[in-house]
Design brief:
The protein is α/β, with parallel strands linked by helices. About 15% of the residues lie in helices and about 35% in strands. The radius of gyration is 18 Å and the shape is globular.
């Protein structure tokens, strides 16, 4: 029984690996800049493929969505550093710049953006002009499950953001932040 189970697990890993390799070829052909192999499981990149750059040894889990809107710029609108893992059903939404550093861990169900709609009373919600400001996540940052990171935020290196938080303002390096809105509750130290 153990041999059959091991064979099934090995077969599933092989199929997942082949699917991931195919997605690498597919998205490269559409214009996504992949700087090495990126592990992908049933992700969605729906348009503006050339506005996305992903470094080597990243992993994008099932249901991850990368969305770039608006005119193409001279720099990537979504940039993901090497050795970063983005967990299931996380949504990166950019019109100017969302940058994620190296060796980051992004939990499931997160939303990370660099824009929102205006609030002018003369326009209905979907006709509001977009307001954008670059969003940057440093290196070795750990973002818990279901975190929302709003436009213009910079999160410093080695920071941890607790599950369910909403980040509306910059967070310094080596901080632990939680809440709605996220606030620093302590700083990380070497042990």
């Amino acid at each position: 029984m153990q041999i059959i189970r091991s064979s099934l697990i090995g077969g599933k890993r092989l199929i997942n690996g082949l699917e991931s390799r195919w997605l690498n070829l597919y998205y490269r052909a559409l214009g996504v800049k992949l700087n090495g192999y990126v592990w992908m499981r049933q992700i969605e990149i729906s348009r503006n493929f050339q506005d996305i750059e992903i470094e080597n040894n990243c992993a994008l889990d099932q249901g991850v969505i990368l969305l770039c809107s608006g005119e193409t710029l001279l720099h990537p609108k979504i940039y993901i550093g090497s050795h970063t893992y983005i967990n299931r059903h996380t949504f990166l939404d950019a019109i100017e710049s969302v940058t994620i550093g190296n060796h980051c861990a992004i939990g499931p169900g997160c939303y990370i953006t660099d824009h929102n709609h205006g609030t002018d009373l003369n326009f209905p919600p979907l006709e509001q002009p977009m307001v954008s400001k670059p969003t940057k996540i440093g290196d070795r940052v750990w973002i818990g499950a279901n975190v929302t990171i709003l436009k213009g935020v910079t999160i410093g290196n080695d920071t941890v953001v607790g599950a369910g938080s909403v980040v509306t303002k910059d967070l310094p390096e080596k901080a632990i932040a939680v809440g709605v809105p996220a606030k620093v509750i302590k700083h990380r130290t070497s042990t």
